[in-house]
Amino acid sequence: MKHRSLDKKKRFHVRGLIIGLAAVLFSLHQDARAAQAPVALGSAAPFGVLAASTVTSAGGATVNGDLGVSPGTAVAGSPTVTGMMHLGDPIAAQAQSDLTIAYNDAAGRAVNPITVAGNLGGQTLAPGLYKSTSSLAISSGDLTLDAQGDTNGVWIFQMGSTLTTTAGRQVILSGGAKAANVYWQVGSSATLGTTSVFKGTIMAAESITLNTGAILDGRALARNGAVTLDANSVTVPNTVRLVSAALVTGPYTYAPGQSVNLATKTITVPQSGAMQFYRVRSDTALAMASIRISGGNVVITYH
């Protein structure tokens, strides 16, 4: 009887160990399911609005970031742009090229996708890769993105067709979620409803329309079509800007022609004929790590 009791205890411990390992593996699977790397936007990162054909603006729209058009050159209306406007120039062309790379990266993500369809309104979603073969909407309620304490949590939404929000609907960030870590890869066009509040970078294959009063904490990047604005506010999250001055005491103004690569933490700006002093400005504290001259440009890294 003594040996049988010991045998039972051994079997119990082995079964408990197996169950414990299974629980750990399940937890690791869940973590892996949620873990996505950010999408590198390259030189498209400083753009709040980037269109292929044209940008149309009405009602005093404001873009807190750069605005660009390529291969088109036209902006209809007079949006307020706190950054630079690049209309059909090489900087806008490079941004479109980098947008294509970023779009294909987001569209090509395939590890542990979570299938979604139709209306996302009223749901709360953890970080992860969400895939729809058709369209997505936020219509019957607000969408909450909960990072669950992980400030590096990334959301990537893939959809084969349109993205639509109805009037007044919101994307709400909680648990340390950041707009900079939310990406919407749209197979055709995106439309934000009147006075809706949206978070994240929209990368649309065709056009993007922000109806009257819609607010975007992110980017509206259209690969092949137009971006239409109407009394909107578009703010690039985690904006990094280089300012320069002829004197160390200032005044410092936006350094023209700059290109910011958030992935490599590098800023490239054409070299000025006169001496210039540079500072990096951002929503968070940053410091210059190095500065060098390369091919007629000043190349600055920061951390």
Overall geometry comes to globular
Treating each run of at least 4 consecutive H or I residues as one helix, how many helices?
Answer: 2
Q: Give the end-to-end Cα distance, rounded to a whole number of Å.
A: 68 Å
Instruction: Please describe the biggest sheet, giving its number of strands, its sense, and whether it closes into a barrel.
Output: 12 strands, parallel
Low-confidence stretches: 16-33
- Strand-residue proportion: 35-45%
What share of residues is helical? 10-25%
**DSSP, total strands:** 30
Helix/strand-derived category reads: alpha/beta
Provide the residue-averaged pLDDT: 88
Spatial extent as radius of gyration? 23 Å
Notes on the structure:
The model is unreliable at 16-33 (pLDDT under 50). The strands form five sheets. Strands 1, 3, 4, 6, 7, 8, 11, 14, 17, 19, 21 and 23 form a twelve-stranded parallel beta sheet that branches. An eight-stranded parallel beta sheet has the order 5-2-22-20-18-15-12-9, with no helix packed on it. The protein is globular and about 55 Å long. The termini are far apart. It is built from two helices and 30 strands. It is of the alpha/beta class and 303 residues long. The longest helix is centred in the N-terminal third of the chain and has 33 residues, at 2-34.
